């Protein structure tokens, strides 16, 4: 992903992070799925997909959430969007507690937070023209708005994401993967949201078009005054997009800091292993790869103590009994490891 042009001055954004207002705050969030079994289909255990996760995102900021498949990052995103009900914890959005919002109040709030999905094709109705796909949410929320006015807005949105006017009358299958993702982005923008949760938005695309879509997202952030929660497994992509980065492992955030601190001085052994696997663009600078042993344990039966202790190359005896808190080690840099202080 070295060909990505960083269109925004992310450094500037990161340094001003503390001065901005908080848009999203997640406090001790848990999303546990019940597992049913036995003759009466009783709940016999739970998958702890998200377990005690806390973080905040400032207005205009991009927070990247990174981790291996199954670490809970997508579940966290869907819970924040209220597509899943949290088991415990609190979600504050723009000063309002939305944790238990339901019905018309939730519907009204929903226009402020939208999602861009990983698979643009699966998320677009193949039976609808692109114009109708983008018109639908506007029409639902603003039924009194004139059709002519909505059509003009939709055409402007299509042009803004790099699609021509005639895209309005075409169907999703007539477009390439990158163009479909542009349609998905236009749909997400239709209601002028404050927050966009982008869940692996480029991982299904060819490498050649990934950078175009990422650059588009960066441009749109400035134009539409957007805040992003950017979920991905690829650290190179997240580095280019994010001001700060949260590292997730087995439902927990194990480290969170601005992107420079995460890359230059990763504190948690898991982050250190992830960073060591990112290819070094300068072949003269060699770094030692940390290869983790074993697989990620099942979130249905997570290890006691530190969730990473079964794979951690630095683990000591007490790591299997003490669950480390996510604590601030340096200003703005939090890590959850008993060896880090
Ligand atoms: Fe490794 Fe122990 Fe730190 Fe967990 S607490 S990351 S097992 S050293």
CATH class term of the largest domain: Alpha Beta
The average pLDDT value, as a whole number, equals 91
Oligomer: single chain
- Tally of individual helices: 10
CATH superfamily heading of the largest domain: P-loop containing nucleotide triphosphate hydrolases
> Largest beta sheet: what is the strand line-up?
6-7-8-3-9-10-12-11
Pick out its properties.
2 domains, binds iron/sulfur cluster, disordered N terminus, eight-stranded mixed β-sheet, 29% helix, 10 helices
What does this structure look like?
The protein is α/β, with parallel strands linked by helices and 341 residues long. The chain folds into 2 domains: 15-112 and 193-209 and 220-288, Rossmann fold; 120-190, no CATH class. The protein has 10 helices and 12 strands. The protein has helices spanning 10-15, 73-80, 103-110, 130-141, 147-160, 177-189, 207-223, 235-241, 259-264, 269-276, and strands spanning 22-37, 42-58, 62-66, 88-93, 96-97, 113-116, 195-199, 227-232, 244-249, 252-258, 327-330, 333-335. The strands form 2 sheets. The protein has an 8-stranded mixed sheet, with helices on both faces. The longest helix has 17 residues, at 207-223. Mean pLDDT is 91; it is low at 1-9 and 12-16. The structure holds iron/sulfur cluster. Iron/sulfur cluster (SF4) binds at residues 268-269, 306, 308-309, 312, 314-315, 319, 324, 337-339.
